[in-house]
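Morning!

This is the sequence you dropped in the shared folder:
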Amino acid sequence: MPYRLRTRRFLNVLGYNAGAYILAVVEDSSRHVKGKHGWPYAEIDLTIADCDRAVSFDFDLSTRGARRNSLRKIDIMIETLKAFRDALADEAAVVAARDRGGAT
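The structure's back. Tokens below.
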């Protein structure tokens, strides 16, 4: 079966071997055939894992409302992750300055 995206990336740099990863899968359903139970669902999976914890997210595309909701969900996640990254970088700078003796 073809995929639009099928990737797993490890999140930690070498030496930090806690098993953190992100898995993103979006099957290409353009060749699916309607069966007696309707259209088969495409495989869509987003899993983020860190150490022994993992969380998977569901993105339903079965109706217009579900599609709109799923796209909204991922957009909010992306916005929040970007804001989190900016705040994390700011805090890392504070901690680095403290380590150098520049701030308390």
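Headline: The mean pLDDT is 92.

More detail when I'm at my desk.
O.
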